[in-house]
Design brief:
This protein is an alpha/beta fold and 150 residues long. It has one domain. It has 6 helices and 7 strands, in the order βαβαβαβααββαβ. The longest helix has 14 residues, at 82-95.
Length: 150
């Protein structure tokens, strides 16, 4: 798997991925530490990387653009120690194969993991599609797995 770890998160996440046979970079190590979010999305897309972040802008940009990639793993719900973040990330990787993470927003907090396939279709857009006679590509849905214990 290939990952791009965003600025709000520790570079240790990228180190851990590399130690576990994943291809991972922190944005600070590839010259993207001051890049706008849409540039980071484009870099991840071109390199087939999954973005790991705590920044809510990434899911919003993907939803607005109805993009099918890159995948995003979004940490929510407060501050995490590096160890807590690694434990939660391990949990995500145990529950979702690469092909599911590459085309989804996966939201992780201290209680649960939610998984929403991309592209995200809004109910308004879906209604317009139904009226036009074209088939819906991917209705928005979240899959929630069991609670997390840290």
């Amino acid at each position: 798997m290939k990952f791009l770890v965003d600025m709000p998160l520790s570079p240790l996440l990228a180190v851990w991925h590399r130690e576990n046979s994943h291809d991972a970079d922190h944005v600070s190590s590839v010259g993207l530490h001051k890049a706008k979010d849409h540039h980071i999305i484009e870099a991840a897309r071109q390199q087939n990387r999954i973005i790991i972040t705590a920044d809510l802008d990434f899911p919003q940009l993907l939803a607005i653009s109805r993009a099918a990639d890159p995948g995003v793993i979004l940490f929510r719900g407060g501050n995490y120690s590096d160890e807590q973040m690694l434990q939660l990330l391990k949990r995500v990787l145990e529950n979702y194969p690469e092909n599911k993470l590459e085309h989804a927003i996966t939201v992780v907090d201290k209680v649960r993991i939610r998984h929403c396939p991309l592209p995200i279709e809004s109910p308004i857009f879906s209604a317009a599609v139904r009226r036009s006679g074209r088939a819906e590509r991917n209705p928005t849905s979240f899959t929630i797995i069991q609670p997390i214990r840290l």
